[in-house]
Amino acid sequence: MLGQVAKQLKSHPALIPLFIFIGGGAAMSMMYLARLALKNPAVCWDRKNNPEPWNNMQPDYQYKFYAVNTDYSKLKKEGPDF
């Protein structure tokens, strides 16, 4: 199958950018899904040692990928320790 794709790309070179952008988009979406699964505080992979990881986060921890107007370094804790 890989040989057929290479043969088609040699005969139709205008398809090369299509393959590059589709492959890049797929790779970026997989990296974003992996980041969501590993860094998001709402996802819990270890129920025995840390069943509620969102309670152990510091108030200045930036878990969002892109924060528009929030400066996480200036945030203070608003609430009791549990």
From TrEMBL:
The keyword Transferase does not apply. Its main location: mitochondrion. It is found in: Mitochondrion inner membrane. Keywords: Electron transport, Membrane, Mitochondrion, Mitochondrion inner membrane, Respiratory chain, Transmembrane, Transmembrane helix, Transport. This is Cytochrome c oxidase subunit NDUFA4. Pfam families: B12D (PF06522). The keyword Electron transport applies. Belongs to the complex IV NDUFA4 subunit family. The chain crosses the membrane at residues 15-38. It is a single-pass membrane protein. One of its GO terms (cellular component) is mitochondrial inner membrane.
